[in-house]
Amino acid sequence: MKNSVKSTLVLVCICAVMALMLAVTNAITAPIIEKNQSAAANEALLQVMPGGQGFEKMDISGYTLPATVTEAYKEANGGYVFTLQTTGYSSGLVIMCGVNADGTVSGATCLSSTETLGYEKTFGDNFNGKNSDGVDAVDTISGATKTTGAYRAAVKDALNAAIILGGGSVDLRTEEEILNDNLSAALPAGEGKFTKLFIVEVIEGIDAVYTADNGKGAVCIVGEQFVAVDEAGAVITDAPADISANVAAQMAVLNAATTTDIDLTQYEGLPSACLSAKKTATGNYILEMRGAGYGINGGDDYHPASGEYIYIRVSMTADGKIIDCLTTSQAETANIGSVCGEESFYGQFVGKTESDYNEIDAISGATLTTNGYKKAIERAFTSVKILEGGATHEE
């Protein structure tokens, strides 16, 4: 019993001595570690703002900043340094960007990345000395569209964050949010939910039409004006008389459009890419086409092919002019060939004919997708000629 008590007392003494030693060690090393960490952080800050005269970390919890901003530092001369986290080809792209007091980029660097291409390591050099307009003008790199595009957007976020922290205001809404807000303001009865109308008739003076999903009317975009019509097609927006009259007339044309299914088996030589067709009472055609892009013709271990076609809807006049174009389905490589599903790409074909449909901007880094899409458009022109009684076609 005495030996047990003695052993316990010895163990307690040893633990007390060790705890004391650890406390002393921590008291000695903690300031050193903190100093080293501060020096490392300061070195990173100076990398993007070489002329910085001292940095103070800010509490940004009370500000509405771009979602990519995770940290902010105020520099003694009025500049800011931001840490931003975004997603390039993969998540985890961390960028540090400095913004001078005059609103130009002092420097940008990649702190960490899971990207595979390596462009992000030196891409930041392209932004030095640039303001917001200059940042927008920096080209993405072909073959690294997602990575370099995300980097550019993060630098733009840093510039916007500097404005906000400096007491200014910036519209942080996306283009989609701005569009929907304008549509909702023009037609509140639409309850904030709209779908772009696929146009099958030739109309003049209207850039686009968005219909309310609840059937309460539509909004026509005329230049920078948003002109609403009710369920009956009557203009309810206070707009100039000539614009109101034209909107009412063009909506009457669209609302009166009727279509008839075409039996494709009655036509010899139609391209197999033409899956179905309709004809309007006014003689226009609506074709459902498929294109063999990267999903069919590409594929490797890094970007496997999906085995899926690109599906496209095209409306066209009888004499071969595209009225509207829409990608209805695609399974191309995410963030690369998948751009074919965005209006910025397929919208380029509107107004094109067989003589100039090739004159569109290709998708960067997605040659197979672009070529497959254009081939489907070419076959749409061929299909209309056959449906109009022209020569047969051999694929």
Task: Provide a compact summary of the structure.
This protein is α+β, with helices and mostly antiparallel strands.
Write the layout of secondary structure elements.
Blueprint: H1 2-48, E1 55-57, E2 69-75, E3 80-87, E4 91-99, E5 105-112, H2 132-136, H3 145-165, H4 175-186, E6 194-196, E7 208-212, E8 218-222, E9 225-229, H5 241-255, E10 259-261, E11 274-280, E12 285-291, H6 294-297, E13 310-316, E14 322-329, H7 343-346, H8 367-387
Antiparallel strand pairs: 1-2, 2-3, 3-4, 4-5, 6-7, 7-8, 8-9, 10-11, 11-12, 12-13, 13-14
Tell me what you see in this structure.
This protein has 395 residues and is of the alpha+beta class. It folds into three domains: 111 residues, no CATH class; 78 residues, no CATH class; 129 residues. It is 33% helix and 22% strand. It has eight helices and 14 strands. Strand 7 and strand 8 form a beta hairpin. The chain is globular, with a radius of gyration of 30 Å.
Mean pLDDT: 89
Low-confidence stretches: 33-38
Question: Major sheet: order of its strands?
Answer: 1-2-3-4-5
Number of strands: 14
Rough outline: globular
Following the backbone from N to C, one meets helices and strands in this order, namely HEEEEEHHHEEEEHEEEHEEHH
Number of domains: 3
Q: Roughly how many Å apart are the termini?
A: 100 Å
State the helicity in percent bands.
25-40%
Put simply, the count of helices is: 8
Our estimate of the beta-strand percent is: 15-25%
- Report the C-alpha radius of gyration, rounded: 30 Å
